[in-house]
Amino acid sequence: MDSPFVLVNLKTYQEGMGSNAHRIAAAAEIVAKESGAVIGIAPAFTELHPMSHHYAIPVYAQHIDAITPGAHTGHILPEAVRSAGARGTLINHSERRLTLADIGACVESARRLHLETVVCTNNDATSAAAAALRPDYVAIEPPELIGSGVSVSKADPGIIERSVNAVRAVNPDVNVLTGAGIQSGECVKIAVDLGTCGVLLASSVVKADDPEAVLRDLVSLL
Ligand SMILES: O=C(CO)COP(=O)(O)O
């Protein structure tokens, strides 16, 4: 398998803003280098350019809108995150849901701009629907476990397995990530052993006193 992928979503946690985004990006860069894992971060839009400018790790947007340049006040263009240095983007995170039509349009415009696409889903049926849109990744995150401190790997490994099977049946070229409550190397290992290529996570790293130690633990069993 390719290097495992750990994507840290900074959301709007206060701890993840400004210089703390630097703190997490710096920790991610160190742990990625020593472990060989790919560790990316998804900071606030306003931090995309500083993060992509200062660090070698891949940087992702948390969202894009299904729009083209023009009159769309308060929206975010795929072109804007690309020019801010994003490698890719989350689409349809549980905290930023889109219609299926808009998810499709976002995947299309991201592909055209060579942005990697991580389409988030909430169950195996939506994972199958997302896979049909041919994103780079489908990220299965049961909403009830997000931010709960209870790991999907331990509480509901079946949803990971069913999503991996659903995605493979539709399009075996689409990679699967899993997330919700991921906090240790053991959680990551279970997810990878179930056929995913890595994890999408937030609070265990963003709220940590020592994000470098948490990241080191996350990749320790791979
Ligand atoms: O929503 C998530 C990542 O996008 C998961 O969040 P937690 O890791 O805080 O559960």
TrEMBL record:
Q: Which GO terms describe its molecular function?
A: triose-phosphate isomerase activity
Q: Does the keyword Cytoplasm apply?
A: yes
Q: Name one Pfam family in it.
A: TIM
Q: What catalytic activity does the UniProt entry give for this protein?
A: D-glyceraldehyde 3-phosphate = dihydroxyacetone phosphate
Q: Which Gene3D superfamilies match?
A: Aldolase class I
Task: Name the GO terms of the biological process aspect.
Answer: gluconeogenesis; glycolytic process
The listed locations are: Cytoplasm
Q: What keywords is this UniProt entry annotated with? A: Cytoplasm, Gluconeogenesis, Glycolysis, Isomerase
Q: How does it assemble?
A: Homotetramer; dimer of dimers.
What family is reported? Belongs to the triosephosphate isomerase family.
UniProt name for this protein: Triosephosphate isomerase
Q: Which organism is it from?
A: Methanoculleus sediminis
